[in-house]
Amino acid sequence: MTHLPHTTTDTSSSPVMIQSNQSCSSDNITFKSTLYATTYTLIFIPGLLANSAALWVLCRFISRKSKAIIFMINLAVADLAHVLSLPLRIYYYINHTWPFGSFLCLLCFYLKYLNMYASICFLTCISIQRYFFLYQPFKAKDWKRRYDVAISAVVWLFVGVACLPFPIMRGYGLANNSHTCFADLQVRPIRSSVATVLMTGMAELFGFVGPLVIILFCTWKTKNSLRGFHIPQENSGERRKAQRMVSMCAVVFCVCFAPYHINFFFYMLVKENVITDCFLSTITLYTQPFCLSLASLDCCLDPIIYFFMTSEFQDQISRHSSMAIRSRLMSKESGSSVKE
Fold first, then answer.
1. Does residue 21 contact residue 278 with C-beta atoms inside 8 Å?
2. What is the rounded CA–CA span in Å between residue 179 and residue 212?
3. What would you report as the CA-atom Rg of the chain, rounded to the nearest whole angstrom?
4. Which residue of 160, 224, 278, 321 is 20 to 30 Å from 240, comparing CA positions?
5. Which residues touch 214 (CB under 8 Å, ≥6 apart)?
6. In b/e form, how buried is each residue of 164-181, taking b as 16+ CB within 10 angstroms?
7. Which residues contact 272 (CB under 8 A, 6 or more apart)?
8. What digits encode the pLDDT tens for the residues 13-39?
9. Which domains does the chain have, with CATH numbers?
10. How far, CA to CA in Å, does 219 sit from each of 38, 47, 198, 211, 311?
11. Tens digits of per-residue pLDDT, 243-271?
């Protein structure tokens, strides 16, 4: 089945289809630029400070035996990469023009989805590892750090390749209009409706449904372990920390990524003219900016996993905070004694 590209008008096409496409066009969504600019501005400073501090503490002060340490470091790197691209996004949505070239546009666009799916994968890895170590504490003692490094490398390779279709699909016609970027990029038309549904369904299955099922399963099992008696003897505090961490992964996943992926399936079908109903198209297109803004909040929510779910992280933060306070008090006391 052949579809009409979004930016061209074919005189042989049905007037009803053309009118439907125009009335349901995403160009009518005038609030999206303001929403994106506001959201990214609010996220930038907290996300930059929280993830920079988290990466510094995780790399320098956390002991080698900490569970999920490597996955947390990679999660912080993924968030920081996206946060550093936010000023360019803010500039575009405020000025409505992109003077930085098509390569930088597609790179920033790519980083958004790289962050999203890397975060999904590493949240899944953290949940699986905490669940597995809770049920197999003796195997946890023999677990090598290089295993996590190898898993992380495979995740980055897989996610990096899997996210390439996003800039490829949205870079359509960018050379002819190099002053647009991000949400204003056109979607490359796919000639087959079956291919559109199949590709979008596979992306949803592996990028959202599969990780969601795994994280919810790990959350359910870790909660059950607090009431079960078949688990090997282990510190109850350790079980509760594992349960809190896995639960926080599930919260971040459901709050940030579930709305986007539920809407994304319909969004792609609307953009490819598989869905032509005006009411459904309008709802989908108007919902997309809010879902995409929610997905960016993971940069601020992920650090909660480090700050509040890891006791070693809390100890290091409190220790260095108290040292800084003591040094300031001592400097004030020495200054006052000199004056006297």
1. no
2. 37
3. 24
4. 321
5. 124, 127, 128
6. eebbebbbbbbeeeeebb
7. 3, 187, 189, 190, 193, 196
8. 333 333 344 455 555 677 888 999 999
9. 29-315 (1.20.1070.10)
10. 33, 26, 30, 12, 19
11. 777 888 888 889 999 999 999 888 888 88
